[in-house]
């Protein structure tokens, strides 16, 4: 599942290509909206909300999409053959005289009234990269279910919107806390530090081509623990471990993150 900075970058590319221009091509390849005709309407803006993309179109319409695990939007000069994947994977096409955007493998694609956007994103917590960012509210929501593990609470978009599996693992490491620790057992200073760090990292990475959470510039060390199973921790040298937490894999350093380990899970899936 993409992180909030990835979705923010996708929104920026789509906005640059489509906003302020009239659609000359619009093809929604899902049965429910296959007959919708958006040509002749101008795209007003493309706004990210957590991990959701809202493409607002003249006439009070919004095209809502979510990338989930492997969805993607690709932009090409109009007339150029797209090469983001097989043709049958394209679920949406939005084009003007200059640029055309192709939505590949989009698991969520729906057209709705802009006034009804709350139906699809109203449940989200404070957006780490949005104008509504509220660290105090995010910390409060993170603690709303004291028995829930930190890893699952961080992934729940109702608490704070924009954290995916990479940041979940990295944030728990930076807080020196096991991702299996119930949030009700966190020291009082940890939640405010966690949400502040999350905001800082996503802000720093939203303009970078490659995500980085470390300060070291050694090759191959952009992240502390994610994707580093069996490799030595950059801080203490302990081998990084990987285990299931709920429905997602989690990476952590047993040396830097004392507490419960991979034998404790929360079966509830995160809410996107």
UniProtKB/TrEMBL annotation:
It holds the Pfam family zf-FPG_IleRS. GO terms for molecular function: endonuclease activity. Residues 224-258 form the FPG-type domain. CDD domains: AcNei2_N. InterPro entries: DNA_glyclase_Znf_dom_DNA_BS (IPR015887), FPG_cat (IPR012319), FPG_N (IPR035937), H2TH_FPG (IPR015886), Nei2_N (IPR044090), Ribosomal_uS13-like_H2TH (IPR010979), Znf_DNA_glyclase/AP_lyase (IPR000214), Znf_FPG/IleRS (IPR010663). Residues 203-224 are annotated as: Disordered. Its EC number is 4.2.99.18. Its cofactor is Zn(2+). The keyword Cell division does not apply. Residues 2-130 form the Formamidopyrimidine-DNA glycosylase catalytic domain. Keywords: DNA damage, DNA repair, DNA-binding, Endonuclease, Glycosidase, Hydrolase, Lyase, Metal-binding, Multifunctional enzyme, Nuclease, Zinc, Zinc-finger. It comes from the Bacteria. It catalyses: 2'-deoxyribonucleotide-(2'-deoxyribose 5'-phosphate)-2'-deoxyribonucleotide-DNA = a 3'-end 2'-deoxyribonucleotide-(2,3-dehydro-2,3-deoxyribose 5'-phosphate)-DNA + a 5'-end 5'-phospho-2'-deoxyribonucleoside-DNA + H(+). Residues 203-213 have a biased composition (Basic and acidic residues). Gene3D superfamilies: 1.10.8.50, MutM-like, N-terminal. Belongs to the FPG family. PANTHER family: ENDONUCLEASE 8 (PTHR42697). This is DNA-(apurinic or apyrimidinic site) lyase.
